[in-house]
Design brief:
Largest sheet: 6 strands, parallel
Distance between the termini: 29 Å
Strand content: 5-15%
Number of strands: 9
Shape: globular
CATH superfamily: Metal-dependent hydrolases
CATH class: Alpha Beta
Oligomer: single chain
CATH topology: TIM Barrel
């Protein structure tokens, strides 16, 4: 059977070089962040830029709105690009923009990015009052149109509540278990369980601040973490969301963490002396290295079907079920 290789989160400094590396790595689909703190109009400008890239590199990439689009891209030897937001800022304070943005191709939206939003609490806030009144309404609308609720940067209570409130499975597209590495952004077992027990997904992150031993994390350590998670939550609910930020200047970290909400530098998960991007582990530096993960998963005892699922088939099944309107 022809299996799909899917990465459910990247925020690279996009270029022909990276698009070609995706093809060399046989990456069939990538969920790309097209908004961090952008408002609606600025998000549309980012979509315009992607449309230019689709025109310039039609042999390498194409826009995907459905699981079927991903399958077609693989047949054509292209990488399917799926749009998502790491913050609800593109909908501003207007629930009607949820449907508009889905129509324009968005398929994932985080309800918060580290901070409190109009919808939910981010993982850096001291108090987490959970999903807000507007958040409950927006989740309902996201469910209706097929915009996936993503809680990757959200706090514990908000994430558990989102999983319970949502009528459709939600996702943590890029994070790791807190029990393996206690980064603020990594998820405790009860949070992961709340998401996965309803058919939701977690994509494991390769971003060094989320890894045990950070940039020195070994492939075996990462894959053993995946194996332990499979024992606890089931292999069918696991995938990859690398959080690859390839070729980005350090100034982009500032935009990710600071946006427009503060005039001070927020060092987030980095240290004050090194606020930029940490080096990637040597076994995963770009899209050409996905085969290393596949080999590593085999080494820790996964069978072929489970490996195919984690490398992409689980995400593809999730796309099929959750990217369209509710029946």
């Amino acid at each position: 059977m022809s299996t799909h290789r899917i990465d459910c989160l990247q925020y690279a400094n996009w270029s022909e070089k990276i698009f070609r590396q995706m093809r060399e790595g046989a990456v069939d689909a990538v969920h790309v962040t097209i908004a961090y703190h952008e408002n609606f109009r600025e998000t549309v400008l980012n979509m315009e830029q992607w449309n230019r890239w689709f025109e310039q590199y039609p042999d390498l990439i194409c826009h995907a709105r459905t699981g079927a689009d991903v399958r077609l891209a693989k047949q054509d030897g292209r990488t399917a690009i799926i749009f998502g937001f790491q913050n609800p800022s593109p909908i501003e304070d207007d629930i009607g923009l949820v449907e508009i943005l889905h129509t324009l191709g968005a398929r994932f939206m985080q309800l918060s990015y580290n901070n409190q939003s109009l919808l939910a609490t981010g993982c850096y806030e001291v108090e987490d009052p959970g999903i807000t009144r507007m958040g409950k309404q927006v989740i309902k609308e996201m469910n209706r149109v097929g915009l996936v609720v993503d809680m990757s940067h959200s706090a514990d209570r908000s994430t558990i509540e989102a999983a319970d409130i949502s009528e459709r499975p939600i996702a943590i597209t890029h994070a790791n278990p807190h029990s393996w590495h206690p980064a603020l952004r990594n998820k405790k077992d009860d949070v992961i369980r709340a998401v996965t027990q309803n058919g939701g997904m977690i994509g494991f992150s390769l971003y060094p601040h989320h890894l045990k031993d950070k940039s020195a994390c070994t492939l075996e350590s990462f894959c053993q973490m995946v194996a332990d998670a499979a024992d606890r939550f089931g292999a069918a609910n696991l995938g990859i969301g690398s959080d690859l930020c390839q070729d980005q200047p350090d100034s982009v970290v500032e935009w990710m963490r600071v946006g427009r909400w503060t005039k001070e530098i927020d060092y987030g998960e980095g240290s004050a002396s090194a606020p930029g991007f940490p080096p990637m582990p040597d076994w995963f530096t770009d899209n050409r290295d996905f085969g290393n993960i596949q080999s590593g998963l085999a080494h820790v005892g996964f069978d072929e079907g489970e490996i195919a699922g984690i490398m992409g088939e689980n995400w593809l099944r999730f796309f099929d079920a959750n990217f369209g309107r509710m029946e």
